[in-house]
Amino acid sequence: MKVLREFDPWKSPLCTCPFKYSLHPYTGCSHFCLYCYATSYIGRKPSVPKKNFIENLEKDLRQIVKGAVVELSSSSDPYPPIEMQLELTRKTLEVLGRNGFRILITTKSDIVARDIDILLRYPSAVMITITTLDQGVAKVLEPGAPPPDRRMEAVRKLSRAGIPVGIRIDPVIPMINDDPEKLRELVNIARDVGALQITTSTYKARGDSLKRLQEAFPDIAEKLRRMYVYEGEKIHGYMYLKKEAREKLLKPVIEEALRLGLYIATCREGPGVTIINAPTCDGSGLVSRHRTLNR
Ligand code: SF4
């Protein structure tokens, strides 16, 4: 197949995702998040549309079983700013829906709300990543992505329209976006605007992303290094915080989500830290709440 792939989280044994396909209309990512994991595999480049993408997708779809979940996108964003002009992801949704596939969108952009008309017609769910409500911190961490209030507004619009939506508070990074009260507030606002699920995880460092964070936050650079490089553990090529530190970081998010009756899941945390109190960790289980399936 040319553009469709079985989802492979870089072979992580800690991934709890169900079987699904992943699809990337764009290579690179113009959001340029400092913590991005993908850059250590594919470099740091702006979003560029793939050539002949729709033609290749239509051919690939003939080779897989209808009804499968296709996620846009696991290691790039399907809604970079250029999508406003190109509408490549919009066309992709139409092709997937028309051919009988289930759609999971994972994005950091409010542009997704533009496509509510298509998403209403096909079984789908949307996960929007919001790591902090602090506009200043978000601007440093995710310089190319829309500010968090616009993303939250997109959650509200999707939910109001009847499209199941969740929020990824992912990653939580020590000393940057880990204030327990602010995390609880984020979960509460997520619930208020209609999110059904929270998926959360701690930041797992790779050499390049840790360096970017250290340069952007020089006051905590040495402590970050100590927590990850010396005190943390190496798991499948990533530097993880030690287990107790990860439990502490995620506790406010998990506790608040449980208290509010939201679905809650962690992502790639491993034994002792993982919780999946949701149909699936990745939000694909929310597709079954789509109104096309519940008429
Ligand atoms: S939106 Fe996702 S893929 Fe794009 S830079 Fe941020 S973390 Fe990386």
UniProtKB/TrEMBL annotation:
GO MF annotations, alphabetized: catalytic activity; iron-sulfur cluster binding; metal ion binding
Domain Radical SAM core: start-end pairs: 15-239
Cited InterPro entries: Elp3/MiaA/NifB-like_rSAM, MJ0683-like, rSAM, rSAM_sf
Pfam families linked to this entry: Radical_SAM
Keywords: Iron, Iron-sulfur, Metal-binding
Gene3D superfamilies on file: 3.80.30.30
Keyword Ribonucleoprotein: no
Keyword Iron: yes
Protein name: Radical SAM domain protein
Species of the source: Ignisphaera aggregans (strain DSM 17230 / JCM 13409 / AQ1.S1)
